[in-house]
Amino acid sequence: MFPSFSRLAAAATLAGLAACSGPSDDPASATAAPSGEPASGHVLIENARVFDGERDLGEVTLVLRDGVIERIAEAGASDLPEDAERIDHRGRFIIPGLVNDHAHVGNTAGTEHGDRFYTRDHVVRDLRQFQAYGVTTVVALGMNGEGFFDIRDEVAGDPALGAQLFGAGAGIGAVDGAPPAAAMGLASDPVARPADADAARAAVRAQADAGVDFIKLWVDDLGGKAPQMRPEIYRAAIDEAHRHDLLVAAHIHDLAPAADLVDSGVDIIAHGVRDAPVGDDLVAAMQAAGTGYIATLQIDEANYIYAEQPDWLDTPFLRNALPDAVHAQWADAAWREAKLADPATRGFRDALATNLRNLGTLREAGLPIGFGTDAGALPHRVPGFAEHRELQLMQQAGYTPKQALTTATRDAARLLGFDDRGLLQPGKRADFVVLSADPLADILNTRGIEEVWQAGQRVSGPVADYRAE
Ligand SMILES: [Zn+2]
């Protein structure tokens, strides 16, 4: 159902790491011939209780080498490498690093947003924050500036810089439509906006040649306020992307374009359907095509929840993720009153309720569901915090903590064809988060981040010490 992932595999390769090594691969191949980075030598993470993305393994020893998990040994195993660095994590809990299938980077500064902020330093700032919050893979699904490709390569070679970055380049939108250039602050609009099918194919070819990991489309009439990308344009773009072995993720808000995109062969619906319940027809069509789905529950809630001053607003876990200017805005009574009085707020509440209901329907139907938030696109979509809030909201759609975590790790990786991560198994990347309490008992325990490891290196933690820039 999906194109092959040769391009992804190439992009995912970190020096010394074997990308896309599945569990059946010879572990030796995963550790062969490091070309310099990261440091070689064994590391043993002992006595932590490990959730591998699918199963609770109990207390085991993770044997790391050259950025990957070489082996998972029983606690107290006697045949462990003697030269290893040993770290005792008794009483702690380990989960795979979270995978965000739909985020944005380098789009904000304080309470402002726009393409003028897309610099290497702002992108790395966001990737570092995602990483500090346990998100070790970030897919920037559009609105990336020209520097995207260099930054992606730089971060892939140095995990300490931040979460590993993938992305859709600038993405492909509608002429005079979504993404709305004025509202998104796109002064020198990087988004391709093809006027016809030939231009759509040319835009996909140009982005494929530039080296994007995915193709992003926006198909949304913005509540009837803007022209929506026409079907012949997105059908041509999808076909051309598949000729280039690229997955296509489409932004939608409403049921009708979602249904036609599924019919057009889109690979991923990149937001939840928020105007109407998904019906049996769409569920059946998605099942037949194997269409993936990313709900982004938090996106609508973020438009009003902070103005409501929930009792968790001043918890350090959220406060530390906010630039001072954003915190000051949210503390301003006049700003809060204006937000809550805005007639649009009711629509956002309704959208979240519909999104939750539809996610429950699609989850029960067994569709491939990924994990995303749209964090980073606007200042109130807070990188790192948004993902933990999303996990919490997923429970309202019927997810247990274990199911939510599986979605945010194993399934989020699978959705995008990343077979080198999302699970803690021999041959997979050593991307994981060390927690102080059991996340399977209470999803809020994902917030007790003591350490973050990426590609076998301890790169961040504890999250309590993190401060946003
Ligand atoms: Zn987005």
What is the architecture of the largest domain at the second tier of CATH? Alpha-Beta Barrel
Low-confidence stretches: 1-39
**Main beta-sheet strand count, sense and barrel state:** 8 strands, mixed
Query: What is the residue-mean pLDDT, rounded to a whole number?
Result: 92
* Termini separation: 42 Å
> Could you estimate the helical fraction of the residues in percent?
25-40%
Present the secondary structure layout.
Layout: H1 6-12, H2 27-31, E1 42-51, E2 56-65, E3 68-74, E4 85-88, E5 93-96, E6 98-103, E7 108-109, E8 112-113, H3 120-132, E9 135-140, H4 148-157, E10 164-167, H5 197-210, E11 215-218, H6 231-243, E12 248-251, H7 255-263, E13 268-269, H8 280-289, E14 292-293, H9 298-301, H10 316-319, H11 324-330, H12 333-341, H13 344-364, H14 385-394, H15 401-415, E15 432-435, E16 449-454, E17 457-460
Parallel strand pairs: 1-4, 1-5, 6-9, 9-10, 11-12, 12-13, 13-14
Antiparallel strand pairs: 1-2, 2-3, 5-15, 7-8, 15-16, 16-17
Helix pairs in contact: 5-6
The structure holds zinc ion.
